[in-house]
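Quality-control log, excerpt.
Job 1 of 2 completed; input and output follow.
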Amino acid sequence: MEEIELKEKKVSHAIFQFLFPFSLLEGKEDDTANKLKENGYEWFRLDKLEKEDDYYGKYEIDHEDLENYYLPFTNRILFPKKEDGKGFQRYTKALGMKSTFKAPSYSAEFVIHSVDIFICPYQIGLLNVRLDLLNESELTYSEILDFGAKFRIMEEKNSITSVLCNGQSFEHVQEYIFECVIPDIKEYMSYKSEKSAYFESFPFFEDNRLYVQALISLDDDITEEDVYRLGNLDGFFQDKPYISTHNKEFVHSFIQEKAYTRWAPYTYILPESSGFFILTKQTGTELTRIANSFYGEFYYGLILTLFHKIVLLKLENNYSEIRIEQDTKKVEKLIHAINAFSSNYFFFELATQSEGRDIFVKLRDRFRVELLYEDTRNTLESLYQYQDNFTSKQSSSLLQILTLYSVITGIFGMNLMVENLDKDINWTSAFGSLSFYEYIALFVIVSGVAISVFLSIRYIAIWYMDKQERKKWRKQIEYPNTK
């Protein structure tokens, strides 16, 4: 078996985006949006062409090309035309904040160009930190990979890194992001687990690491080992380049299966479960074109796929917490949520171009979106079956009660007392002269009328409450803002 030999390489450019999904407080979507706008965030619209180069350092995205890249029904979700419309509401703020990442064997200076916060349906928020390494010419490829691997860890028990910003030192990335970069959002995040945890506001989430989107340009030729190391963020160990395998054949099969090699050997795209990676040796205008796609088409594809994964995990988690015999309303709400997701937000086809479709298919496969969706559809079928059985049982019981009253009333009430109802009745003497069977008939008639009135009122009340609840569910699921 051929041994893997690694040599250090120089990097001409390295840019990162770190994505953080979180849970919004229910009903606080409008307050969140208002707070963000008060603090300098702008609602993102494709028709604001003057913003094409405001948030991405020296790069820009073409809004018209971005819209044409996706299919129309996908555009309606990704780029809603109204702030209170259905879809992802993006709020962006340009920062230009310079900071320094301190590791035991190197320091990495970087600038945060801008921050995005998406207010999404299902009380889901997505936060994105967009940064550019400033001294990539001094950092080796291994050190840049190590930076990506360490920066994505929100909190470590025994941290060996720190971030310096505005004279302050933060031991954990979590503290740096929520105290220095984006202090505006903390009060609107849902804490359902440990108070010190953010990812645990999703009790079903995998770990406490950020999702990474990285574009790295090398000065040297790209090898399969370089691509593998980027996909796994294998930095260095004991000041030497590190790779998490010793099998060269394994690396080759990994690249063949998971990497998109249409533009190899110059550019490799690797959609992975931990993020979305691009490794290239292109320079000049070609690198600019790749970076524009990195910030535009690929970014939104990752956002949408990550949203699909989170919602499907959330629906499965909600199903596991339901006491199906008692939580009938929760069952109805879950059925509504699954149907709304399937009809409004889940699309098998996203992009209009063939390379976009191929890349996003790989990304969805790495995120296991299709498998999660099949599980959710099976859950929906189980819920429908239970609801049908429960409704049938309720209807059968009610029908038996009403049939019983009709029969008894026909036997007793109509035959014994109805003829007395067409004339004036002295109720005092009438009650005193009734026989035992007439008392039974009177009770049946009065209770039957009372039950009918009660059922009618109950039906109207349930109908009104259901209507209000479904309106509330629709606002929560389809329209994250309710202005």
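Job 2 of 2 completed; input and output follow.
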Amino acid sequence: MTKQNARILIAGASIAGPTLAYWLHKHGFEVTIIEKAPALRLGGQSIDASGPARQIARWMGLEPAIRAVSSNEAGIQWVDKNNHIEAAFPRDHPLSITDEMEILRGDLVNILYELTRQQVTYRFNAQIERLDQDDQQVSVTFSDGQCEHYDLVIAADGIRSKTRKLIFEDESVFKYLGVCVAYLTIPRAPTDTNWARWYTADESRIILLRSDSKGTTRASVLFLYPQTDFEKLAPQDHKSLVLSKLADAGWEASRLSEAIEKGEEMYFDGIGQIKAPQWFKGRLGMIGDAAYCPSPITGRGVTLAMVGAYLLAGELSRHQRFEDAFSSYEGLMRPYVESVQGLPPGVPELLYPSSATGVAIVNKLAGLLSSRAVKTVINLLKPSADQADQQLNGLALPRYGF
């Protein structure tokens, strides 16, 4: 396989897929992206590209476009049921969830599409139904009945990837972390500011509100939920479950309940990680959330998606044999994935107190962590932002001859 005539198919037009397509095209490959939705899926919450992904975004020339649609979020405030601020983590605080390149998921998807649509073939409203590979190629049967041939096929279609199941069947494991989440977009209210607001309620519930760049507010409802009960949930149960968790939660919970009752679109899922013993099988592979979703708890899903895409394209560009490229990629990427997926002891449970006393303790701890003294100590111990952007597990982020 030589990159001058190699054809690569990518499943998924979210973040990992178009990023991979950009770099593959830059290295001389012919790329097609297939997306099961009839158009780009532009929903989603606030995200950011941190660490080495920030440098990759700069190399792609994305920084001006990202900053142009940034939410300009000032930071995050922890509030009590009376909206009194218990702690504040400005954007420059090392423990803040707000990043300097904060952007809505849908905005980043659109930016990546506009960046690549002239060089990459996009096929919407279709998906892969069957994959057959031999020593020479992969035969792909699509949902519209067409069959085409590619040198490689890469799944980048998210945590619930259907392409992953076609390749690996049930080999990969979704590790549920004991938390359910509901996302919805609601009208902005006078209480909403340019600060994200985090509210912890008793009975292991959290509400997060973040004003966006569209004049609306992105809401998240999170709560602990046993795995045995989660596995029994049916789609028709989601709305009633979320409403039951919002009942008597206090603060602005009634505002969210009213929005759900009025029919505001709500996305619901369990929070978890994808643990995959292998990412490649012959000419087939996967990246991004399909391969190694770290969960929203880490805040590094976009980072892994962009870093993984950049590295895979680079390794394919510098190896004659795709098998060698895949092996080298795993050597670089798997240690990084494992470091990102690692959670501190007690997380996430410690963030979800069951009693009012527990809530008071968590809020008090947040106040201590937000102090100037703690910020100073953490900044002294952590690498600078420039160093973090240039490194992958302490090693220099590879360059691939561009």
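Post-run check on job 2. The two ends are 21 Å apart (CA to CA).
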